[in-house]
Every structure is written in C-alpha cells, then in structure tokens.
Records
---
Amino acid sequence: MIKKYALNKISVATLCLILLLMFYFIPTNNNIETTVDENNNKLKENVVYLLDEDNYVSRITTFYDEKDITEDIKKKIDILINGNDDINKFYPLIPKETKINNVKVEKDSVYIDFSKEILNVNKYLEESMIESIVYTLTEINGLNKIYITIEGEKLTKLPNSNKEIDYPLTRSIGINKEYNLTSFDNIDKTTVFFLKDNEDTTYFVPVTKISNIEAEKIDIIIEELKSPINSQNNLNGYISDNLELVSFNKDNNKIDLVFNNYIFTDNKILESVEYVISKSIFENYDVDEINFSSEENKNIDTIKKDDDIDLNNVSNNINIKNEKETKTEDKIEDKKTNNYYTN
C-alpha cells in the first residue's frame, strides 16, 4: 500500500514537472506582453508654458510619472526653471538659480515660495514669467488660484517695472496680451488659442485680446482665428475667411454652434479647426461640452472639456491649404480697422 502511494506521488510530481517545463519553453503571447508593458509605462501628460522662438508663452506638453499633487507642482516648476531635454527650442522663464523653498496646496489654491533669485528675471520677461507660472499650475485640474512669496514675503510688485500684482493670481490675468483700446471704459479680455509649428512639434499659443469693443466673446474668437494678421505672426486658426457663425446657443454646461458650410474642408471638419475653436471657448466660457453643426448637418461632432487632444494627428493635416493663404493686402488693411467686431 505504501509502495503504491509512493509511486502515485512520484507520478504526480513527474507530471507537474513536465507541465512546468512546457510552460517555460513554449513562447508566451506577444500581444499580452505588450499590453502589460504599456500599462506599466503609461505616463501622465504634463502641460507647461514656455517661451517659443517668437517670444510667445506657449502651451507645451511633456510626460512624466504621476505622483501626488505637490510633487506634480514641483516637477512643473522645475521645467519652468531648467527646461526639459525633450523640448527643443522652448525656453524657461524663471531664472536658473531660483530654488523652490516650499509648496502648499489648500483646496483650489497653490502657495509657492521661491528663493530671491527669481527677482533676477529679465525686465522684458517679468510679466511673461508670471503668466507662465499661473497658466502652468492652473492646468492641474481643480487648481485655480496662485499665491507667490519670496523667502516668505508676498510678491506684491513685479521686480523691474514695480507693476502691482493682485491676488489671487488666476488665468484672468491673461497671457501674451494684445491691446486694442479706444478708452478705459468697458475693458474686456478674450483669450484665443492658436496653433503653431516648431519643426515636428505642433502646439497651442494662447493670446489674450484686451479691448473695449462690445461683442460676444465667441464672435471675437472666430474673427481672430480667421484674421490674416495673426497668420502673418505664425498664429494659425486654419479657418476659412468665408466661415460664418450662423447661431450660438449656451444652455447650462453646453454650447451649440451652427456654422455655414465653410466649416468643412474636403467634406469634413479638420481637427485643427475643432481644437482651436473648442480650446478658446473652454477658456472663456464655463461649459463642459461643445456641439458642432452646419446649416445642413446637425450634430456633426461634439468636443468635451476633458477630451484628450492629440496634436500629433493635427500635425499630419496642418499643411492643408485654405483660402486664408491667398488673402490680399487690402483685406489685411481692412482687418486692421477692427470693424469686424461691430454688429
């Protein structure tokens, strides 16, 4: 009996050994390995605002391992100080010797304390530096207000111009500001997101238009994206000059846009067009969803605020020529009058 039991145990052990050897030597499914590898190495989008070669504070995307929110803030600020090897031809605005003394997050506010070296910023870039910090940190979901101190003392004025700083700092300060004022009454700001190219990189450049012209923000957005003057500055909207916004309706957290048929290129709406319009609207309106339609085709596409924007795909069709490239100098001069804002 014992002998039979022992033989059974040996047989079972031998069978297990054979099965283990089979699993070891038979190749595993490559697709499964790839999936696991991708999940382990998935990185988080890290949006920062750096200076491009034309001195625009630009929205640039890098990638990094996601950690807690304080570490995320420190990583972002480190790029604003030291740059990033993966980003060519974009430049940090905070002086290199600057140190981050402390970071504190309370609800929707960030309190960040710098060393005194931050005061050595170039006098022509001091306002851009503040814009870079504010827009970079408020890209983190839920953070809206920024407070800056230097060695524990609140930074109340820009270091060179002595221009006063109002707190809390929010995106309402604007970025890459352009002024078109006829008086100091009824001043309003509209931030428009353009697309720009740097070799093989496509990125957003936000420009805050400051004027006292009475117009709905969506009208300003569309007209600025169409403007050949902005195109001359390499700020592209990729929108036909014949495009017209037929109707605009804001209902709670949603905006419905109806355009004429010039919204189409080759019978479709280019992603580049959807992106610049949507990004600009989300910056100026408190909505979560934008619905695109034409007069003949309803609900062509919907863009949500939290949708991922793949600018790599945009770069593939960015060279599509539209009518804007054939504008005459007369049209450019006509745009300079800014009459296109009037009703």
---
Amino acid sequence: MGLLTNNDKPCPICGEATPRLLATTIANEMPICSDCSKKISMAETKLAQLSVAELKVHLSQREENARQLEEVFRPNYSVDITWTSLNIDEANELFTLPIHECGDIKNPPIFKYEELNGYELHDEHGLIEHCHRGEAAPQLISTDPTPAIYESERISSTISRHYKLHLFFSNPYWDKVEVEAGTVVTLKSQFVNEYTAFMERFNPVTFALAAMMGVDASTYVIDADTIAEEIKKFEELRDAGIITEEEFNEKKNQLLGN
C-alpha cells in the first residue's frame, strides 16, 4: 500500500487506489482516483452531489464530447481571452472555452448557444458590464473609467486592476464558469487610457457572447440608476468648480442620449 494512495477505498469507477490526501469526492464523500478525476468537467457543487451511477453517465458523455470535438465541432473563428480562446462554430451554434477549471483542456466541454444565459465582467471593485439573455443590449454599469483607489495604493504611483469574465449557463454540469480576462498595471496618470484600451481589446469577446444570445452589441445601454448617479457626480464636480456649466451640460446630454 502506497503512502499517498488508499487501496482500502478503491475508485468506484475503475477500482484503482484513491489518493489519501485531497481526493476528489462525489456524494457521501466517496473518493475517486486521480485518473477518473481528470476526465470530469463540471462545477464542484454539482460534483459533490453526484452518485456513482451519475458519474458513470457523465464520463460516458465526456467520451462523446471528445468524439464530437473530432467529428462535429468546426469552429470558424476564435476570440482571444488572455490565456485561452473562445472558439465558435457558427454553423452548428456551438462554442468551447478551454480552461483548466473545466477539466482537460484537450477535451473542453462543448456548449450550445442556447445554454448561454449571460456574461458579467468584474474587477476587484465589482461589476463593470453585463449582458443577459433577453436584454436588448449589453449594460454598462459606469461610464467613468477613473478607478476607486485602495488605501494601499494611495502612496503608490501605480494602479493594478484584475478583470474576470463570468459566464452563466443552463447546462446540466455548469451553471457558471469564471475566466481570467486580463490585468491593467499602469501609472495612475495613465490608467484611464490603459483601461479604455483594455475595454476596446475585450469588446470582440463581449460582442461574440452577446451575438450568441441574439443581442446586438453594437450599442450599449446604461441603466437609469447609473445615469442618475453619473449626473449627480458631474453636478458635484460643477458645484466644486472643477468643470464648467457647459461641460456639465455636455456630459448630462451624453448620458441621457440627447
């Protein structure tokens, strides 16, 4: 018996020894072996509730997924997202996103357009942009790229922001997938320019995701509460003498779409 494996608790799928430490477990905390664990592609919350019979069905489906990647899936274009790509098969209305969080990147789960319910782009301070199925256009939370400053950044000359893309699904094994979307590290004085450049680089990703949901991403919508908050902010800048009345009216008209 190996020090790192446990023959007393064999894998219920293949009968091999399971890890003594950090073993992947299914329902009733039943451990499975490392080889079977590597084949799985599902959210941890769903895996923890899975029975042996259900896991066997899933592993069979993973084999079918690999076959479809080889014989059916024909991506006609890709959009880069930091370390991976959104690979899209428009003819079959399918896409993949090879990331380690979804298991074997050589056998990424194939998602259907109809399974994509929405996306959200976040940084450390919260939500930046979102679009969900049924909405007319992507929703921008704020038009102001000026970052809120962390206390630890006040004495620093640089700012760093880390962005993540959250995808929401109606899929038997995935309800949410999180993808690294990029990082901006720059001088405070250059942050607005770098942030704007990041958003422009990221637009093809959000445009593609919106298109899968039947949403026209050529225009963005800012919700009413956000518009009111933005106008109030510019009012305060005007009252403080930082911007002129003319600049305030220009900003207000932009926000109201006039």
